[in-house]
Design a protein that fits this description.
Blueprint lengths: L4 E7 L4 E6 L6 E4 L7 E7 L2 E6 L9 E6 L6 E4 L7 E7 L4 E6 L4 E6 L6 E5 L4 H4 L6 E7 L4 E6 L8 E7 L16 E7 L2 E7 L4 E6 L8 E6 L4 H11 L5 E5 L4 E7 L4 E6 L4 E5 L6 E5 L6 E8 L1
Antiparallel strand pairs: 1-2, 1-24, 2-3, 4-5, 5-6, 6-7, 8-9, 9-10, 10-11, 12-13, 13-14, 14-15, 16-17, 17-18, 18-19, 20-21, 21-22, 22-23
Protein name: YWTD domain-containing protein
């Protein structure tokens, strides 16, 4: 049987990882047992599923687990105490690393695929007072190996219009600096409604993100060119003005999860009201509703050809 696109989604309501076909067919639960712990970020690689679990936002008890594709052989690879509330997860196949954002930890982190060599790359706050400031909360993440760049979002207060997306080198801080004061961070966008998960189309150098903020531009799918072509940057300025990005689709209900299928020029978006949608990447905003409310709260998603 030829491989088909499978969407893996984290169902917060069930505390489970589920799997479904790209047209909404064959929904089934792969692994459960995380009720009340909020699974949030997920990646599939080499017959394994890697996923973050936030735990209690006040207890510093988040962790990262791995299981086989059928849900068996669950292994704790990053134990409690190493990461506070891990959020979106990305996987570097070339260097065999995991990257994730830590919300209440206010940081961007990485480790080896087996959970060893945990590192903090960016630290946006350190005290309990800082932890209460949602503008410091790191949530979405993606990276570009060819340009050695790391991208992440800081959501800001709920519906607050203070979210931002940042970029820095995909390396530890320069000599003489720490993750807290590294000087090589660039602000790409600020005063966003409430940006959440990120994905990058490497060939087109186009960044995509979900936003769960307030209307008119929140609860949306967005994109922006983030490459080095002056011609493309000028074109974007002419089309989008000072905002600098396109709102591709609105109308989601607390949009969180995002997975790109660049080959088929589409993406998948999930929201906390139990929705899962296909959205065209041709700028038309055309979309197909796979589920609307039936799933329960969905957080992170990813796709795999299986």
């Amino acid at each position: 049987m030829a491989p088909s696109t499978q969407v893996f989604l984290l169902n917060k309501a069930l505390g489970a990882i589920q799997r479904v076909g790209a047209e909404g067919d064959g929904l089934r639960t792969v692994v459960a047992g995380y009720a009340g712990k909020t699974p949030d970020g997920v990646q599939v690689y080499s017959n394994h599923i890697y996923y973050t679990v936030m735990g209690d936002p006040k207890s510093d008890d988040g962790f990262i687990d791995r299981c086989d594709l059928d849900g068996s052989n669950v292994v704790r690879i990053v134990d409690q105490g190493w990461t506070f509330t891990p959020k979106q997860l990305q996987l570097d196949e070339v260097n065999q690393r995991l990257y994730w954002c830590d919300r209440e930890g206010m940081r961007v982190m990485r480790c080896s695929l087996d959970g060893s060599d945990v590192e903090v790359l960016v630290q946006r706050g350190e005290t309990e007072e800082h932890r209460l400031q949602e503008t410091r909360w790191c949530v979405g993440i993606t990276f570009d190996l060819s340009r050695q760049l790391l991208y992440w979002s800081q959501k800001g207060p709920t519906k607050g219009g203070l979210g931002a997306i940042y970029r820095c080198p995909l390396t530890p801080p320069p000599p003489g600096y720490t993750p807290s004061d590294r000087p090589d961070i660039t602000t790409l966008f600020s005063f966003l409604p409430e940006p959440i998960d990120l994905q990058l189309d490497l060939a087109e150098q186009r960044l995509y993100w979900t936003d769960r903020g307030a209307a008119p531009d929140g609860n949306s799918l967005n994109s922006s060119y983030v490459g080095e072509s002056e011609k493309r940057l000028l074109q974007q300025w002419e089309e989008d003005g000072e905002r600098g990005y396109k709102v591709l689709r609105t109308g989601f209900q607390e949009a969180i999860g995002l997975a790109l299928d660049v080959e088929r020029k589409r993406c998948f978006v999930a929201d906390l009201e139990g929705g899962l949608f296909q959205v065209a990447l041709d700028g038309s905003g055309k979309s197909k509703t796979l589920f609307r409310g039936e799933l329960g709260a969905v957080t992170g998603i990813t796709i795999a050809e299986l």
